[in-house]
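Q: Hi! First time doing this. I have a protein sequence and I read that you can turn it into a structure. Is that right? Here it is:
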Amino acid sequence: QTRVPRFGILTAEAFDAHTSQPAGAAPLAAARANGFPDEAARTALGAAMVRAVLRNALPVSVRIGLSELLASFAEEDVLAVRASVVGEPLEAAVVSGALDSSLAVKGKDALEEAVLRMMALAFHPRTLGLREGAGLPALGLRLAIVVQRMVSSEASGVCVSLETHAHASSSSIAKRPMALVRGCYGLAGGIGGKQGSPRIPSDLVRVERPSVAADNVDDDARVEMEIALKGEQLKLDDASGKTVTRMVPVPEHMKRECGVSTVQARMIAKEALRLEAAFGKPQVVSWAFAGRLL
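A: Yes, that's right. Below is the predicted 3D structure, encoded as structure tokens:
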């Protein structure tokens, strides 16, 4: 079975409304006027813009929208807050590793704080540098914010519906059309987007796929696994009475096992291809398994 946990979206217009407030306009105006002649200037001005975004309260209209969004979730729900780039695919690709999620968010104040942190990432010196390195203007990134009920998952990650040359290995299977499933135990598999994060050892699982997404993945499609040594996993912990995330050891017998089975890898790839067929282009999909439920 496959389900999408309840979610809501704070649109890019909310991002624009907050980042254009007069109280925080000075650092942004200085950056637009002077640009970033060197790394020191980018670091200084980026840090100033981040402080301005974090220091200013969200506009009243945005806070009302967040309250209404929060009311759509159950009181016991723990939330994940993610930034979603609004723009061309290249804009999303170059900063995917810089937009970390906020996990185990609960309550109005915590949600507003998480949203501010997500918005501030658009002006972080690292984000600015990644955009400049890709030939994009350092300023100009716009973000929507996705708020979703968090799943306490046994495994999680990202699936690229069509593996490109940049991700491909030298193995023979990678020369055929493949879906790439990246993941690990626990909650942290989506960190770093499709590129992953060096902080989180992840398994790479390639699933053979048809050239046309609408034909979808065969039930006996070939699967190839590159298994990472996974010493820790990120889990929810509410032992203290407050739900937080914590790194905990992976049991010894699981460290060298793949986080997903071949059947689960095919399930993930099938969903990614279904979305590719619906949207008409390759997709990058976050996934999680809670028991048998994808």
